[in-house]
Amino acid sequence: MNSQPIGVFDSGIGGLTVVRSLMEHLPHENLIYFGDTARVPYGSKSSQVIREYAIQDTEFLLSKNVKMIVIACNTVSSVALDVVIKRSKLPVIGVIQPGAETAVKSTKNKRIGVIGTPATILSNTYTNTIRQIDSSIETFSRACPLFVPLAEEGFIEHPATELIAKEYLFDLKLKKIDTLILGCTHYPILSKIIQKVIGDNVNLIDSGECAAHQVKKVLEETGLKNLSKLKANLEFYVSDLPHKFTEIGERFLGKKMGKVKVVHL
Ligand code: DGL
């Protein structure tokens, strides 16, 4: 069981930022990644459709005999965590709870900002999770849909990104938040500009990075940790191979990807 891979899925390419964190903290864990590149973005779709897709993504990973499922996608973690748990009967880690817990620990003035896709923000899952941990905390949310194509386009430190970040983050800045959750797989790629615009006094929380810590903890608690010291095996699957996939993917992953296989769900 322990050498079986951890299955990670996302709506597309963005979840590779979560794989990057997992590789850093768990270098000996074998990983299988599925990105639903044929149907991305999920963030502008209805919860009903996202839940249907999440079940299909989960079934693909189950067919690969994974020992645990990591939902890298904030949108899926916000609206479909329950269906993935129900379908898989394996340990399932979403990115919301770990991100919310870290933000609660970080805030001093009890004012937390949350940015994400429209579906993530509409669901209010971050806000509800934060309130369950500490009901005295105030949250302020904003959907930032244009950050996704900007990150994929490689507009990392580009004036257009800065302009849009100023527009999106203006209200949050006025709310005097001291902590901001980057509630979308793509946003850590743009963290330099987001930090510049929101101000150095605001602590940015990368929900994927927080989830990687949680995965490590759960593997240890459940005895599922791979004890092998061999180099981990990484497999990448997508539902379509779009233009520039490898180039963008390697930017998100921070290293070479190797072979990517196309599967039809
Ligand atoms: N992976 C999605 C998320 O983290 C962003 C891209 C999409 O909208 O599908 O919410």
Question: Mind explaining what this structure looks like?
Answer:
The protein has 265 residues and is an alpha/beta fold. The chain folds into two domains: 6-94 and 209-262, Rossmann fold, CATH 3.40.50; 96-207, Rossmann fold. Helix content is 46%, strand content 17%. The protein contains twelve helices and ten strands. The protein has helices spanning 16-25, 47-63, 74-79, 81-88, 96-106, 118-123, 125-133, 147-153, 159-174, 191-198, 207-222, 245-253; strands at 6-10, 31-35, 68-71, 92-93, 111-116, 138-143, 179-183, 203-206, 234-238, 260-262. The strands form two sheets. It has a six-stranded parallel beta sheet with strand order 4-3-1-2-9-10. The chain has a four-stranded parallel beta sheet with strand order 6-5-7-8, with helices on both faces. Helix 10 (191-198) links the parallel strand 7 and strand 8. The longest helix has 17 residues, at 47-63. It is globular and about 50 Å long. It starts with 5 loop residues before the first strand and ends with a strand. D-glutamic acid is lined by residues 10-12, 14, 40-43, 73-75, 116-117, 120, 148, 184-186.
